[in-house]
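Lab notebook: predicted structure, single chain.

Context: the supervisor wants predicted structures on file for every construct in the current expression panel, including those that have not yet been purified. This is the next one on the list. No modifications to the sequence; it matches the entry in the shared construct table.
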Amino acid sequence: MCAAVYVLSTVTGYVLTSALLLKCPTLLHRKKRETFFSKHISHRGGAGENLENTMAAFKHAVDLGTDMLELDCHLTKDEQVVVSHDANLQRACGISADICNVAYAELPPYLCKLGVTFQRECVCEGGQDKRIPLLTEVFDAFPNTPVNIDIKVNNDTLIKKVSELVVKYDREHLTVWGNASNKIVKKCYKENPHIPVLFSFPRVLQLLGLFYTGLLPFVPLKEQFLEIPMPSIITKLRDPDRLTRSQRIITWLVDAMTFITQRGDDEVAAVKPCCS
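Prediction complete. Output recorded below exactly as produced.
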């Protein structure tokens, strides 16, 4: 009987403390600086409306009033930071060559028609702008627009050069960077802890576990932004009518679980339901 009372009182105290700190995290943690909050984020500049990761796509998105541009970075043979999703040029340009083996001046243009990788049976036809841009061009054209940078490869030189450009353009308060890989995120944070980092995929799983076990309020987080491919994206990649009932139920449940209550101290500053 005494043991049961002890266990019950301990669990009750833990639950109440966890709920209190989740509601008022500044009791335990220092509130992080939050310079922007983005609800509308243009993935690859809005790949379904313009050729992905082009200056035309970014300009169109900004003209529509987007809160943030999301883009991907690679390093060319002559160590120029370019904006491109794929490491290989086959899908986007029709040439089987890796960006890291091609000098910037020799990069081919995008194809006239480009399939949207995260939308079933969706093809985007480009206009005049079919050029792979430099990251500096994006920073020059949109100095006041928050930018989400996906470091696509585990390359120390790429991470260092992106950090140097962010500092040069005084954009540490307007930039978030990272990758689904925890190794890349750790390197980004080590290179420049002043640039907010994204949760990697393993850290997202850990975050969910901490939240649903009540441990989240007790754990400090270096990351500030979530970039989560919601499970419901499968309905855009596959015919929804071909999904089994159990697949639809699991997708719905995981979708519901992924929307995490925002923490006010070491909090998540934005949620981005898109795919990489």
